[in-house]
Design brief:
The chain is of the alpha/beta class and about 300 residues long. About 40% of the residues lie in helices and about 20% in strands.
């Protein structure tokens, strides 16, 4: 790992926490627990030692981006166009991307007075199950070919040009795109784009998603840890679905737990692990910052691109 990260400065958590500007976490522990993902673990101390320095770094990048945009508009003798500062957040399934994204959304809203922060997940750009079945790709959901990348790139292009967009909504409860439902996304101050594929590119060799990001984060951990977190989350989903026949996980919740876990382990090994190894992990060096986790989702190292 260290060789592939030669273009990064490696910082220990002890060093990183000294880079915060002295402010206290602008949220309560109750608020923090309400936004964390299933089986994730995060504390106010994590916010203060890891995420507040990260927000300060984002502020530096945002100021630089705004100054460059203003200077370019002067050069071109044009009025500057309002566009969101776009942050990409990537990593494996079950690694904690959603917690990081929701926490960043809240911290940015409270750190930048009056700031509007939109959050979208790339799950909404998956083809629906009917299309995946027709393509014989239902068992490849999450792999690059299961996403409508042209639609995703089109969204990023429109929002970057100050246009309001309506994008599809994905539900993990029904394991599909929600029919007749959309998310309205406005050209806000910040846009966080979260998903396993936010640094990937497919079907377009001249346009890359990373071209639209002003800042980018990859959540990293050792593969055995991610597998354990995936299986823990699966068991929690079973418990939540046992009384809801409409939930995708309900069928698995009615099986003997050992049988359901055996299916989950096969899914991890035959789908998620391959996707992580072949398509997700190779993109991590496209991120500006890599947050490395150890046991219990504790961030112990931070890599910042030189």
């Amino acid at each position: 790992m260290e060789n592939e990260l030669m273009t990064y400065n490696k910082l220990t958590r002890q060093h990183w926490k000294t880079l915060r500007q002295g402010q206290e976490a602008p949220l309560t522990d109750k608020e923090l627990q309400s936004i964390k993902s299933l089986n994730d673990s995060i504390s106010i101390l994590d916010v203060e030692e890891v995420y507040l320095p990260l927000v300060h770094l984002i502020q530096i990048y945002k100021n630089t981006q705004e100054n460059l945009a203003f200077s370019k508009s002067l050069f071109l003798q044009e009025e500057p166009t309002k566009r969101p500062f776009i942050i990409g957040v990537s990593g494996s399934v079950a690694v904690g991307k959603s917690t990081t994204s929701r926490l960043l959304q809240l911290l940015l809203e409270r750190s930048f007075s009056g700031a509007q922060v939109e959050l979208v997940t790339t799950d909404g750009f998956l083809y629906d199950n009917a299309t995946l079945k027709a393509q014989n790709n239902l068992n490849r959901k999450g792999f690059p070919e299961s996403y409508d990348m042209e639609k995703l790139l089109g969204f990023l292009d429109r929002i970057s040009n100050g246009q309001t967009c309506h994008i599809p909504v994905y539900s993990h409860e029904i394991y599909d795109i929600v029919p007749n439902q959309s998310q309205k996304v406005t050209p806000s101050d910040f846009l966080i784009v979260e998903g396993i594929n936010v640094f990937q590119n497919r079907h377009n060799n001249s346009l890359y998603m990373t071209d639209y990001y002003d800042f980018s984060i990859y959540i990293d951990a050792q593969t055995p840890l991610i597998e354990a977190w995936y299986l823990e989350r699966f068991e929690t989903l079973l418990d939540m679905a046992k009384d809801d026949a409409s939930n995708y996980y309900h069928l698995f919740s009615q099986m003997p737990r050992s049988e359901a876990l055996s299916i989950a382990k096969k899914t991890w090994k035959g789908i998620n692990l391959i996707n992580l190894t072949d398509y997700i992990e190779p993109t991590k060096t496209r991120a500006e910052v890599i947050l490395h986790k150890r046991e219990n989702h504790q961030i112990d190292k931070i890599y910042l691109k030189k």
